[in-house]
Amino acid sequence: MIKGERCLSPKCAMVKRAFAPGQHGQSSFTKLSEYGKQLREKQKTRRIYGLGESQFASCASKAANIEGNTGDNLMKTLETRLDNVVYRLGFASSRSQSRQMVSHGLILVNGKKTSIPSYHLKEGDMIEPKEKASLKEMKSSGVPTWIECDTKKITGKIKRIPSREEIDTTVNESLIIEFYSR
């Protein structure tokens, strides 16, 4: 992956040549199998949410046990994890930073210190940083509609569990469910 100023200019290697380097870079790519598509979608989602294989598999099995559409349940389970909600509220600039904040005990859920990033939040849960002065500024724009955000008090509250339409992650969850159901 190319980083830095050069990739922002027209001299970027990927702008000049939109194919891989080397002798076989321009040769046509082989078509992905159905399993390959499912695996790629699962890996993409895992990387978006920053989860390990066993954590992601347990989220998928929890989603399968909940009544309703398994794909929607998977996305709801991933979105209502504490580390993701801390990121969505704007307490952290990335999901990995929010995960670290949670694991260091810098986040309070309903007034109690919680150091488990995979903590599943429910409707009505209050989320706030332990030391509000250390948090520079909370972003008020970009917070999902299912989270109530108070920028003055620097707190967040889960208004409701999100529907699939409210989750803006571009993932084909049906491929992931097919991957785990084989």
Explained architecture:
There is one protein chain. By secondary structure, the chain is of the alpha+beta class. It has one domain (34-161, 171-180): Roll (Structural Genomics Hypothetical 15.5 Kd Protein In mrcA-pckA Intergenic Region, Chain A), CATH 3.10.290.10. It has 7 helices and 5 strands. The chain has helices at 13-16, 34-49, 53-65, 70-79, 82-89, 95-103, 173-180; strands spanning 107-109, 112-113, 126-129, 147-150, 155-158. A 5-stranded antiparallel sheet has the order 2-1-3-5-4, with helices on one face. β1 and β2 form a beta hairpin. α4 (70-79) packs across α7 (173-180). The longest helix has 16 residues, at 34-49. It is globular. The relative contact order is 0.15. The mean pLDDT is 87.
CATH superfamily, by name, is: RNA-binding S4 domain
Instruction: Give the termini separation.
Output: 33 Å
As laid out across the biggest beta sheet, the strand order is 2-1-3-5-4
What's the story with the biggest beta sheet? 5 strands, antiparallel
Shape verdict:
globular
Tally of helical runs: 7
The amount of beta strand, in percent, is 5-15%
What is the helix fraction of residues, given as a range?
Answer: 25-40%
Based on the structure, what is the oligomeric state of the protein chains? Answer: single chain
CATH class: Alpha Beta
Low-pLDDT segments: none
What is the CATH T-level topology? Structural Genomics Hypothetical 15.5 Kd Protein In mrcA-pckA Intergenic Region, Chain A
Reading the helices and strands in chain order gives HHHHHHEEEEEH
Radius of gyration: 19 Å
